[in-house]
Specification:
With about 475 residues, the chain is α+β, with helices and mostly antiparallel strands. Helix content is about 50%, strand content about 15%.
Length: about 475
C-alpha cells in the first residue's frame, strides 16, 4: 500500500482524512502528525505583516513610476492678454442676473475656447510660479480636462500628468476614465473610491455639507454641439456662499485664532466710542488695530499673518458680516460681538467698504483675484445698477495696495505697520474723490472709453495709481 502524505496540523489544520496533493508544502512537513514547519517561519504574523508592507510599498513605487513622467503633457499657455481678461470679466458679468436679490434660473453656454480661458485664468490666480498647467477639450460629447503638476524627486524634474474624461449622463457629467501618467484607472473604480472617501470622511465635515448645498444650485450640466451647457438657480445668498467657502479654504487654524484676538481688540475699541456716535472714520479703527499688530509682531509673531487677520476682521465688521462663519464652532463660541457703528471714508460708507473689502481679498486670496472682482463689480454696476464709478474703482485700488503691501513680505508687513500707526486721516491712504465721473452706464462707458483695454481707459488707471502711490501711506513703495 502506498504511504500517505503527512497530515497538516498546527498552524494550518485540516480535518481528519484530508491530505493535500503530493508536493504541496512537502518542503515543510517533517512527519505524518507533526506541526507544519515553514522555512524561516514564513507564516508567522510579524513576518506576514512585514511582507504585506513590502508589497504595499512596492505597489506605491510602481504607481509612482507609472504616474510620474519627465515631460509635461500640457504645454504652458501664454499669459492672458488684456482682451482675454476683459472677456473673462464679461463672462462673469453675463452669468449674474440683473437683480442679484431675486431667485432666477440662469443658463450658460460655454464654448471650448471660453472654458479654456476660464481655466487659464484660474491657473493664473493660483500663480504662475506654481508651474501648474491646464487644458480643456470638448471633442464630441466628451469633456477632457488635462493637468500637469511639477514634482521634484531627488532634484530630478518630473511631472504628474492627469487626464480626466467626462461624458454626458442625463443631467450631469460622469467620469468615464482617469489617467495618471501611463496609469489608466477606470472611472467606476475612481467613483467607488470617491464614494468611500465621502462616506468615511467628507460627510462629517460641515464645510463639505455646505459645499454640497452650493452644488445643488446646478440643475443641469451637459455637452451639446461641442459646448458646455449649464443651468443653475441663482439665489440671493449665492455670492455670499461662494465667498464664505473660498475664505474658509484660505483661513488656517492659526489665522482663525488671530481673528478671534483682533475681534476682541476691535470690540474693546468700539466700547470706547460714545454710544451717541452714529458713524466714525475708518482711520479710527485702522490706526489702533495696526498698533496692536505691530506689538504682536515685535513679540515674535508673523507680521504678514497679523496683517491678514486684521484686515479680514475689519472687513467683516465694516460690511456687517458674521465673522463666526469662518471659524470652528469652539472659537466662534468665544467670539465677542461688538455693537455696530457705521464706518466711513470721506463721509461715505461705500468707500470704506470698498477699501477694506479689496484689502482683505488681496491679503487672503491675492491681488489678481481682487483686481478681477473689482472690475467685474464695476461692469455689473454699469450694466444693471448705479453705473460705473471711478470713485469706487479708486477705493478698490487703494484697498488692493494696502492689502498687497501689508502681506507681500515680512519686511513690507512691518513697514506698513510702522506707517499705519502714523496715519492722521483718510486722505493718507485714499485720494480726495469727486463724483463727476460716477454713474456712467455701460453705453456711456463704451462711448467714452470703448472698453477696458483702450489707451484712454488705461491712461485713466495710471493716473489713479499715481495718485495712490503719492499718498503718505504708500509713498516710495511698489503698490503693484
Amino acid at each position: 500500500m502506498a504511504s500517505r502524505p503527512p497530515r497538516l496540523t498546527g498552524i494550518v489544520s485540516c480535518p481528519e482524512g484530508f491530505y493535500p496533493p503530493r508536493g504541496i508544502f512537502s518542503f515543510a512537513f517533517v512527519g505524518r502528525h507533526t506541526d507544519v514547519i515553514m522555512a524561516n517561519s514564513f507564516m508567522r504574523p510579524a513576518n506576514f505583516i512585514r511582507i504585506a508592507l513590502l508589497f504595499m510599498l512596492g505597489l506605491v513605487v510602481v504607481i509612482l513610476v507609472l504616474s510620474l513622467q519627465r515631460n509635461a503633457s500640457v504645454v504652458p499657455a501664454p499669459a492672458l492678454t488684456s482682451s482675454e481678461i476683459s472677456r473673462v470679466e464679461q463672462l462673469l458679468v453675463d452669468s449674474a442676473p440683473g437683480d442679484v436679490n431675486s431667485s432666477e434660473l440662469r443658463k450658460l453656454s460655454l464654448s471650448n475656447a471660453e472654458l479654456d480661458l476660464l481655466l487659464r485664468y484660474a491657473a493664473e490666480m493660483v500663480g504662475p510660479e506654481s508651474g501648474i498647467h491646464t487644458r480643456i477639450q470638448l471633442p464630441g460629447e466628451h469633456l477632457i480636462a488635462d493637468l500637469s503638476v511639477p514634482v521634484s524627486v531627488a532634484f530630478v524634474p518630473l511631472f504628474l500628468n492627469l487626464s480626466a474624461d467626462f461624458s454626458s449622463d442625463n443631467e450631469n457629467l460622469q467620469l468615464t476614465s482617469l489617467k495618471l501618467g501611463r496609469l489608466r484607472i477606470p472611472g467606476k473604480l475612481v467613483n467607488s473610491l470617491a464614494e468611500q472617501v465621502e462616506i468615511r470622511y467628507l460627510q462629517r465635515q460641515s464645510g463639505y455639507r455646505e459645499f454640497l448645498e452650493l452644488l445643488d444650485s446646478v440643475k443641469y450640466i451637459g455637452i451639446e454641439s461641442d459646448r458646455l451647457e449649464l443651468d443653475f438657480l441663482w439665489e440671493p445668498g449665492l455670492l455670499s456662499q461662494v465667498r464664505t467657502q473660498a475664505q474658509k479654504l484660505l483661513i488656517s487654524e492659526s489665522d482663525q485664532r488671530r481673528i478671534v484676538s483682533y475681534q476682541r481688540t476691535l470690540s474693546r475699541l468700539i466700547d470706547t466710542i460714545p454710544a451717541s456716535s452714529r458713524a466714525i472714520s475708518l482711520s479710527t479703527l485702522l490706526v489702533p488695530l495696526f498698533e496692536f499688530a505691530r506689538q504682536e509682531s515685535l513679540l515674535g509673531s508673523d507680521p504678514v499673518a497679523e496683517n491678514r487677520a486684521l484686515l479680514l476682521t475689519l472687513a467683516a465688521y465694516v460690511n456687517q458680516e458674521g465673522i463666526e462663519q469662518w471659524l470652528t464652532p469652539e472659537l466662534a463660541d468665544r467670539l465677542p460681538k461688538p455693537r455696530i457703528i457705521e464706518v466711513r471714508i470721506q463721509r461715505r460708507l461705500d468707500l470704506a467698504r470698498h477699501v477694506v473689502s479689496s484689502a482683505a481679498i488681496s491679503a487672503s486670496a491675492g491681488l489678481g483675484v481682487a483686481q478681477i472682482l473689482s472690475s467685474v463689480k464695476e461692469n455689473y454696476d454699469a450694466r444693471y445698477r448705479t453705473g460705473f464709478s471711478f470713485s469706487d474703482l479708486t477705493a478698490n485700488r487703494a484697498g488692493m495696495s494696502l492689502g498687497t503691501l501689508a502681506t507681500r513680505s515680512p519686511e513690507l508687513a512691518l513697514e506698513m505697520q510702522r506707517r499705519m500707526v502714523s496715519v492722521t486721516g483718510d486722505t493718507d491712504y485714499l485720494p480726495l474723490l469727486e463724483s463727476n465721473l460716477d454713474g456712467m452706464t455701460e453705453f456711456d462707458f463704451a462711448a467714452r472709453y470703448r472698453d477696458e483695454k483702450s489707451s484712454d481707459y488705461q491712461l485713466r488707471l495710471q493716473e489713479i495709481d499715481q495718485l495712490i502711490a503719492g499718498l503718505p501711506l504708500f509713498h516710495g513703495l511698489p503698490i503693484y
